[in-house]
Predict the 3D structure of the following.
Amino acid sequence: MTVSLADWFREAANWAFMIIAIPTLFAGWRTVTSNNIVRAVLYLVVSLAGTAALFIMLGAEFVGWTVVLVYIGAVIILFLIGIMITRAPLGVDADLSHARNVRTPAAVLGVLLFAVIGYAVIDAFENSMIEPFEPTATADLANLLFSRWVIPFEVVSFVLLAALIGGIALARKDDNGAQR
């Protein structure tokens, strides 16, 4: 079944997708182009929230709420705490920026790579319509995770706890190298 552009715009779900996707893309762009680290982290929050909304819209509730809880709720907070603990400079640092002769080829390569991947996806799927499917219930995923995969789940939680403690220990060193 082929879908025309006019058919695509008639679907309300596609409009909802665009309303979520455009701010998500903008926030992702500002995350990597912002000169202020705190603003970059806040743009990352918006980008991750948009990604979670897209997952929820697709019926992947578990993945969407995992993005909210883990990435927005934990990782972003760790970024902000890390910035505060290490007393990272918040202004523009000229030493961190690459010269234009490096940025321009990187941008051209990024656009070229996007075009090649976009062409490959369009060539592979053409105008085919994705058939609706029954999303997997969060309860089914939880039962599987906490029955069959409970040991690896707990091991990962201890590894993350060790990484958090190690990060705090590294960040709390004084300038002369002595622990506080």
Summary: Residues 5-148 form a domain with the Four Helix Bundle (Hemerythrin (Met), subunit A) fold (CATH 1.20.120.1200). The first helix runs from residue 5 to 10. The chain has seven helices and no strands. The helical segments are 5-10, 12-33, 37-57, 61-86, 100-125, 138-147, 150-171.
